[in-house]
Amino acid sequence: MRSDAWFGEVAGVRDAYIHRAWMRRGTPADSFDGRPHIAIANTASDLTPCNAHLDEVARSVQAGIWAAGGVPHVMPVMSLGETLMRPTAMLWRNLAAMSIEEMLRANPVDGVVLMGGCDKTIPSLLMAASSVDLPAVVVPGGPMLTGTFRGRPLGCGTDVWRLSEEVRAGTLSAAEFSSSESSMIRSAGHCNTMGTASTMACMAEALGMTIPGFAGVPAVDARLRSMAHETGRLAVRLVHEDRRPSTVMTAMSFRNAIVTLAVIGGSTNAVVHLLAIAGRLGVDLGLDDFDRIGHDVPLLVNLQPSGEHLMDDFFRAGGLRAALREVADLLSPDAVTVTGQPFVAGLDEVSTFDTDVVRSRSEPLQPAAGIAVLRGNLAPDGAIIKPSAASPELLVHRGPALVFDSIEDAHARLDDPDLDVTADSVLVLRGCGPRGYPGMPEVGNLPLPRALLRAGVRDMVRVSDARMSGTAYGTVVLHVAPEAAAGGPLARLRTGDLVELDVPSRRLEAVVDPQEWASRTPAATSTDAYARPVRGWERLYVDHVLQADRGADLDFLVGRSGAEVARESH
Ligand code: FES
After folding, report:
1. Lowest mean pLDDT segment, chosen from 112-116, 215-219, 523-527
2. Whose CA is nearest to atom 1 of ligand 1?
3. Which of 147, 117, 80 is nearest to 442 (CA)?
4. What is the third-level CATH fold of 35-146+186-349?
5. Which of 150, 251, 304, 522 is least crowded, fewest Cβ atoms below 10 Å from its Cβ?
6. Between 3.40.50.720, 3.50.30.80, 3.65.10.10, 1.10.3470.10, what CATH number should domain 372-549 receive?
7. How far is CA 159 from the centre of its chain?
8. What would the DSSP string read from start to end of 42-94?
């Protein structure tokens, strides 16, 4: 065991004494007889409300670890609350991953159970586990139960966007909107749409990193507790069998994740997170793989924001495995899970209990729903769009650009009654990429101009170097790379230039004379609202963050360092 280096004879008499003595706070003496010590990396925090119940779930994991002959250690780790953190939780995903990786390496643990839920928590845990490459398994915290407002279900996030646009359009009063607030969050758990949290739980399962069937079990369901217990037991077995993230998350697993992302109509944020995780593992995954593998995969899961239902309905209908049974032929038969079994094992025995929520292959919501990767003179390194959440009639569109240099600029002008904008305009937001904002916030789905909303317009083409919430929808081109603040050509665009979006041809172009385009001086995109950082994490982040097409990881965090510790301080 790796932990023998702390607790066993190899540590030396005095040092082993110190390490064991300080751990003896009710720990049985046989805890140090060479059995696996398992960290429970726990992202519970009152300021990450979606994960606040994880302390309770950790108790089930602990019990499972003890039952299987291991020794559990709850290890609170950096947690990122999506709704609260300013300027954006994404600014710290890499910091969370780095700190978790370092804590796992520094401590006497042989394996780890990764407990996450809210958007950035599962990605940062998986990035950390990949770089330290100790045996690891994920416990997804589960979605909340469905809240209702005046008898209608409320989708976290998606309905906030929809209702707030109704207020701006004048079709819903501000008082009615705020009275829905107390109905939105009904129970413990993360957002109940197929937003980023639900998507990343499904991605963890598709990568093979959970017990099969775990993603989507509601946070308050008794089955989540029993699967957490089972996961604790499995963590001990993982150590004995030396099954590590690098042996589970292979190129085949990423293929399965991309197929899954299309089937569920998952969040665009999964693209940057999967790229970052693959980068840690040394798996050769590029932006174009999402289009190549996912392009013809049908959308089968009828959940907001691409469809109607919510995670509770998905679970009742049979869940992720029921949806994946329909596309079993598209999944890699060689990918394995943390159980050691093939990912596709047992899929043919799964049932669907509601075919409106989980559609059959013959009656998909959309026949081809994968993320589309666009290129052109506006995005030489790529940009993405989620066709399943877009308006079909806008997927081929040409219109004049209306350019905003920051989100503050957009907010200041979008509701101006004199704004020169039509439904054909292309709203362009720049200066909001990884480096420019910094942190690549979820602002790419710009609100529509109030005047157009009042005229009944509900979607427009939008283009940005930002991300958007996984709960959002619309014809929104995101993650333009390189971003404007990194010298990307988006900075050369001017209001009035024609922009052409052609999703079937995978093109995003500024229709500008090439000579003039090449000679233009890029616009300054820094904002007064957010001065360039001079110290601390933000400085490190801005100096080292990679572009979206490489997962927005830090350049020096790509790859693995393993779990070796070279020196001992005593
Ligand atoms: Fe935490 Fe949506 S805000 S999952």
Report:
1. 523-527
2. 118
3. 80
4. Rossmann fold (3.40.50)
5. 150
6. 3.50.30.80
7. 20
8. E--BTTBGGGTTHHHHHHHHHHHHHHTT-EEEEEE-----TTT-SS-GGGGHH
CATH 3.40.50.2300 in the chain, residue ranges = 35-146+186-349
Q: Give the least confident one: 229-233, 420-424, 529-533.
A: 529-533
DSSP secondary structure string, 136-148? EEEEE--BPPPEE
Residue reference for tokens 């596709």: 344
The first and second tokens of residue 254, run together, are 């990423």
pLDDT tens column, 237-269 = 999 999 999 999 999 999 999 999 999 999 999
- The rounded distance, in Å, linking the Cα atoms of 36 and 278 is 27
3-state helix, strand, coil in the chain (%, to 5): 40, 15, 45
Average pLDDT, rounded, for the chain: 94
**Tokens linked to 204:** 């963890």
The phi, psi pair for 180, rounded to 5°, reads -80, -10
Mutate to test the pocket of ligand 1, among 119, 193, 200, 467 (most ligand atoms within 8 A of CB): 119
CA of 152 from ligand 1 middle (Å) equals 21
For ligand 1, mutation pick of 156, 158, 310 (most atoms within 8 Å of CB)? 156
**Residue among 50, 51, 154, 311 whose CB has most ligand 1 atoms within 8 A, to mutate:** 50
> pLDDT for 368-399, tens place per residue?
989 999 999 999 999 999 988 899 999 999 99
CA nearest ligand 1 atom 2, residue? 191
